Amino acid sequence: MRSRTPLLCLALAAVALSAAGSASHADAPPAPHAPVPRTPTVAVDSPPSVPDRAARIDGDPETYSACAAPSVLKLRAADDARDLASLARCAPGDAWSRTPDREQGPSLHCDRAARPIGAARMLEGALPLDAATVAHVRAVFRAGQAQRRHRDVFGLVGDSLTVDANFLRPFATGGGRVEMAPDVERLLPLHAFSSESFVGFRAAKIGVRAPWALAPRGFQQASPLDEMVAALSPAYAVVLYGANDALWRTDSVDLLRRGFDGALAAIVDALEARGVVPILTTIPKHMREKGWPDCAATPTGGGNERFAVQASVLSADVAGLACRRHLPLIDLRWSLDPLLDHGVGPDGVHLSVHPSGGGVMDASGLECGYNVRNLVTLRELGRVVDATTW
Fold first, then answer.
1. What share of the chain is helix, strand, coil (3-state, %, to 5)?
2. What is the pLDDT of residue 3?
């Protein structure tokens, strides 16, 4: 049974952060499923092609959409840089390094941060759907219903941030501890989805980049995305790639972008062709990962500050693709930004989590990365369900 807390406090007094050592908390991937035949592409009531459109400047959270993603328009700190020129100033103790210097260790105890942040700020990352996006989502949804997609099921596509058991699994029946205020619960579509959505097969694997989702597992075998669609037949799919893609190459940001954009667009195409509504997600910040220097030793070497810039570039590209293709967008980077170490845990890569798991959404839970990701993802799923219920 789910326990409930009183109404969520939207402002908390600041207290000193507790120091702690670093440790990775990535979970093992779900048990493998037997290979399944490739799902055929069926052209039934295919969504119409839509013209590209540009981002707009928009300061009202109620009218944000993928074309006005606040992480792209509003985040301007040193760790939001999207141009390699910023690396010319890379040095120990520089503006980028101050956050991990101060916050990365204590992020192990994110629940004790007690920052004055509330659910309303986090939920700004669950972007509203403008009229063009609603129309496109409905067209894809109709095509999916003709292919017998289940309107009460969503799928998950991604890397270790999606494999992790703290991401959404606690909300399955008996899946773990869930606590939230009634005003928060009313915004989330927990009863709109079957338990299978939370614990079913995920097209996700630790350490992979976006091209992995569509790569067949072997000769005459299905791709992970096709396996997920065959296993769940979902009406919707939440997609998050980019953390590993940002580390893939350091010789050319332009080539990095082109490769990532092409792979992510191919995932969108594949989902839409199968009648599954894609919901894209911006990328958390890359912080200080062990094994890499903060500053690269050569102009094209690998280093944490370079990877942080490249993750910022690819995160903006996710928003740009969602804008152009009229897709729902979870601006996770915006929702995580106020948290200790921007919601990233002690290893500098994976999200922090409340000691009692990702289902805790009281004031202490919403100090932690996976807990906030769960909140904002469920809220955006609710927006998409509303758009497809007419």
1. 40, 10, 50
2. 42
DSSP 153: E
> What tens digit of pLDDT does each residue of 99-128 get?
999 999 999 999 999 887 889 999 999 999
Q: What 3-state class would DSSP assign to 84?
A: helix
> What CA–CA distance (Å, rounded) separates 254 from 277?
28
> b vs e for 95-129, b when ≥16 Cβ sit within 10 Å of the residue's Cβ?
ebbebbeebbbbbbbbbbbbbebbbebbbbbbbbb
Give 192's DSSP letter.
Answer: T
Cβ pair 55, 320 in contact under 8 A: yes
If residue 329 lies in a helix (H) or strand (E), which one and from where to where?
strand 329-330
Nearest to 138 by CA among 47, 41, 265, 42: 47
The H or E element containing residue 328 is none
Non-local (6+) Cβ contacts of 131 within 8 A are none
| The pLDDT of residue 26 | 36
pLDDT of residue 390: 76
Residue 340 Ramachandran class (φ > 0 left, ψ -120 to 50 alpha, else beta): beta
Q: What gap in Å lies between CA 286 and CA 315, rounded to an integer?
A: 11
By CB atoms closer than 10 A (0-12, 13-18, 19+), residue 47 is buried
| Sign of the torsion formed by the C-alpha atoms of 55, 59, 64 and 69 | positive
**pTM here?**
0.85
Average pLDDT, the chain: 87
246, 311 contact by CB (below 8 A):
yes
Distance CA 167, CA 156 (A): 10
298 CB-contact burial (10 Å; exposed 0-12 / middle 13-18 / buried 19+):
exposed
Q: Comparing C-alpha atoms, which of 59, 228, 154 is closest to residue 377? A: 154
Q: What angle do CA 94, 95, 98 make, to 5 degrees?
A: 85
Give me the pLDDT at residue 35, please: 37
Tokens of 170: 């606690």
337 token code pair: 């930004």
Token representation of residue 152 = 């009460």
CA–CA distance, 295 with 274 (Å, rounded to integer): 44
Question: Which residues of the chain fall below pLDDT 70?
Answer: 1-63
